[in-house]
Write a structure and sequence with these properties.
Chain lengths: 593, 593
């Protein structure tokens, strides 16, 4: 008897689209909070298409469907998505709004879920519909949810206070700061939908998504420093309720619509690049005055206070110890054979677990041996898992969530002896890494302005890498955090004291190997004399950089001086915490060159 | 008998404002063409306020008035403008739209001349009025013109053909290129208001404004490669009419309104950052379909063809000879005393006049001795004219218009022996200059991405300069030309082969001295091997850089190698054209270090 075939999700979606007279429906990867990680209950794109990457979008029409992914995922989308059902397009080079403008027939009704798109994104959709002569329709309930039978329940994990000893500023003080910012613009309240902003503002942490300690929720922060928090009451323990205090009023999420509906006549700020369009539509219908402006928590959250910075330094001591113990183990174990990407990942995780305050990885470890190292966002699986082989190089990019800080570090090491080409490329990447780490720049400089410093040694040889040089990092929050970046995009956000960033240039040779050298750094005032106030970076990460991959003749004396001083600091910081064998390995691995 | 005081212009303007029920009126420095230079007939801002700088804006209200200028002009505005009549504000830090939003009373009528503002600018004014609850009113005739009694007549200068031997591409071919670009977007025509675009497209030149060989005019370029040119018929000789041919239809400027009015139902492109808002309003009223997009001449005009590049190289030979003869003369004359900024300027001009194809300066020479060198956009006058003194340094930034190319070059030289600080700063500036000149970068890189290469040596010492590193340059057209730039702004225009730019980092010590080293360069494919296609710069300018201002110990060998190779090229290129004494001076001035 032939097996009964169940209908593919896209067919189910088309049935409900026909019923609702929707000619095209958009399914983004994002959830209502526009964060990097979404809970299983919101993984609609994966349910519909099979695609599990961290960014993407699908559009389903009656007789065609398309999935849009970026350059990181062009290989992955091939294996995960049925290409009989979906055309694949490039998210950046041929974005959905352009495709819609070209593809929608005149008069077509384009449906979207206003919870899953920001006002800026909806502006783009509206423009596409204008061009095509189509009609944009906000659906009342997401069409995927109507046909997704075994959809998981939303996460309900406990919310815990983040102690002042780690947060460094009481929530009352933070709320007062935001209230002053709002009052200064005669704004009554700001609508917050980013869980990391709310977690920062209220000094709380949760566990609703992978890797980032976030409680999924919404909030209205008022100009009197009080907050309405919309969150599943099952997440809030009595202890957390006490921590939040009387100025934070708790509401179940379903009360949000009524709360926004009651803001008629008030001036409400909303981030057009982050909030759900639903909230804008709701506030507009209620005749609130809308202030389209950035989430006011972004900048104070990005500029870490001294307690957070001390926490970061402490977390990096423990993290550096774990990584150095791992590298010492690896230097002995790997050349003997039997170490794989997955076993190395587990070994490193076990060293991290030995450290205090460790909560888990801050993202899925990227451990790429040989050719797998060239896949920038590689994630090892039992099917792809490669052994570490002598003569190859191994890239491992990992990080930890500690109660006192978030880490993110990449080291690339030779297994046995590396070839001349790998050493040449590694040294070029290191020169770029050092150029950023040593950079001194005037106040007002953006990360975009210093991105090329990291690329110049590669550019000079006709080489480059296709990712940003650095991303912002949270304080026991998301490992990717805005608004600051070091990248060649048009981000004009100046770098400000206290901002944490990664410094991670790389080089990738498809089918052969990958190189990346990543430390976290923090922006600091530069104390040296000069005519202009200048800034620079303090390096937080403490772990040796593989000397066997460096061609000393390519470094100038300044660069070698930086490396030797860094290695001395690594050695002096970590040795007191080490057993003698590891200390001996570290001494050798951090010798001056 | 007391002298009869005539009423100040601002009082006259207020009278007509009252009559027309306009509560605030905007007077920009720009004319209808948004170019850098405006003819006397359009110098309304100067007439109204006395301010003669190249950028600025005034707003006049019944009981207050403000003038907005940028950082270059903060000193100049002090001396030129009556501060009893005008408050001075910073054009960038406190822009007019913000001031209007803060200052306009609710219900006020803000008047503007739609000929003098672009659609993007009018969007900003509209937003300001929305915020203030004011009403934006496009006036039918500029209120200044109604009361400006002795307003000069608009310029009427002959338009001449730019021969194919210099233009390198026939106008038929250029018009065909633009027509294909329009047809590809189903666009019927583009409205052109930038005289340099029209001059490029039709291979014509004029003389309606200072320094740039521009004919002031408007045009409609159609998708059938024909052009309607709106220009004073007195400017067009029979020869030029023949050159333009039958596909270019000539109309007097007053026919433009009717021509745009007849475009109902057509799709018309218009540059929202360059066209007069008047044209947009006229086309909208005529029910044309508007395509808001950049002037299609910008990119082909920016990417010089091989004939234009050969012309540029030839022009730079003659220009380099003139500048080198001048520098040789200066090295003898200045230390003896008696040379001033103005006499030096005239001397350099006389050497340029000796060269073939020379038409005049490409901008007002900046010649700053000692402390005057620190004024970035200084223009010497009999009142400010300083003698060149021993022990000081002298900055001279000048350029020529030649039929085969436009030049722009800055040299800073020591008069006698320079101090250690000046040599230190000069060498840092030179390091930045060389870093740009030597840069190799992947295709797709923007000027914004390489700007920091020029600044890094200064940044490392806590120093910087407050202007861009490089601007685009035309081919016997404007000395400042877009869309490419090397600057820290968010300009994402990739650098493309054939684009001409300046490379001109500097350092300025207020009240003491100024340093700038400027060559023109052209983007070229880099022929060296590599994994990615890369670009670099060919240096066009040929003139020695003062060795007596260089601290050799601060240059690395790569930098010294670049300088020596550059100087060898200068020497080998110019010596055959020189008299023996100048050749001897050049040999000494370009010796290897």
């Amino acid at each position: 008897m032939p097996q009964q075939l169940s209908e593919p999700p896209v067919a189910l979606l088309r049935q409900v689209m026909a019923k609702k007279r929707i000619d095209a429906f958009i399914v983004p990867r994002a959830d209502e909070h526009q964060g990097e990680y979404v809970p299983p209950s919101a993984q609609r794109l994966a349910w519909l298409t099979g695609f599990t990457g961290s960014a993407g979008m699908a559009v389903v029409m009656k007789d065609k469907a398309a999935i849009f992914v970026d350059g990181r995922y062009t290989l992955q989308v091939e294996t995960e998505v049925d290409h009989g059902l979906f055309d694949t397009l490039h998210l950046i080079e041929h974005p959905p709004v352009r495709w819609l403008a070209e593809t929608l027939p005149a008069g077509a009704r384009l449906g979207y879920d206003p919870w899953l798109h920001t006002p800026d994104q909806v502006d783009g959709l509206r423009q596409a519909c204008l061009t095509a002569g189509a009609v944009l329709v906000a659906v009342g309930r997401n069409l995927v949810d109507l046909v997704w039978k075994d959809r998981p329940a939303p996460p309900v994990t406990p919310v815990v206070p983040q102690p002042d000893a780690f947060a460094g500023q009481r929530t009352e003080s933070k709320r007062g700061m935001i209230a002053r910012e709002l009052s200064g613009k005669q704004t009554d309240a700001v609508f917050l939908s980013a869980p990391d902003s709310i977690a920062w503002l209220l000094n709380i942490r949760g566990n609703d998504v992978d890797f980032s300690p976030l409680p999924l929720c919404f909030a209205l922060a008022h100009c009197d420093a009080s907050v309405d928090l919309f969150i599943d009451p099952r997440k809030i323990s009595p202890e957390t309720k006490t921590h939040l205090g009387p100025q934070v009023r708790l509401h179940p999420p379903q009360d949000l619509a009524a709360a926004l509906g009651g803001l008629g006549g008030k001036k409400i700020r909303l981030d057009p690049a982050g909030a759900p369009s639903w909230a804008l539509q709701r506030l507009t219908a209620a005749r609130a005055q809308i202030e389209r402006a950035a989430d006011p928590c972004l900048l104070p959250r990005a500029c870490k206070n001294t307690v957070e910075l001390d926490g970061a330094r402490n977390a990096h001591l423990r993290d550096g110890l774990a990584l150095s113990r791992f590298l010492a183990w690896l230097s002995h174990a790997a050349p003997q054979g039997g170490v794989t990407e997955l076993s190395a990942t587990e070994k490193l995780e076990s060293f991290r677990r030995d450290g205090n305050l460790y909560q888990g990885p801050s993202f899925a470890t990227i451990a790429g041996a040989g050719p797998n190292g060239a896949i920038v966002h590689y994630r090892s699986t039992p099917e792809t898992n490669r052994p570490l082989k002598r003569g190859q190089i191994f890239l491992i990019d990992s990080g930890g969530q500690y109660l006192d800080g978030t880490t993110d570090v990449t080291r690339t090491v030779a297994v046995g002896e590396a070839g001349a080409e790998e050493r040449h490329r590694f040294t070029l990447v290191l020169k770029g890494h050092i150029a950023v780490a040593k950079a001194r720049f005037p106040k007002g400089t953006s990360g975009a302005q210093i991105d090329s410093l990291a690329r110049q040694p590669l550019w000079a040889e006709g080489l480059d890498y296709d990712h940003g040089t650095g991303h912002g990092v949270g304080s026991y929050l998301s490992v990717h955090e805005g608004p600051q970046r070091i990248a060649k995009n048009n981000n004009s956000q100046p770098l400000l004291p206290g901002m944490m960033l990664s410094d991670e240039p790389g080089y990738y040779k498809t089918g052969a190997y990958g190189i990346r050298i990543e430390n976290l750094v923090v922006v600091q005032e530069d104390p040296r004399a000069g005519e202009r106030p200048t800034l620079g970076f303090e390096v937080l990460t403490l772990a040796p950089i593989d000397l066997s991959l460096i061609d000393r003749s390519l470094l100038n004396d300044d660069e070698a001086g930086w490396l030797n001083a860094y290695h001395r600091r690594v050695r002096e910081s970590l040795t007191p915490m080490m057993d003698p064998a590891t200390a001996e390995w570290l001494e050798q691995s951090t010798r001056a060159i």
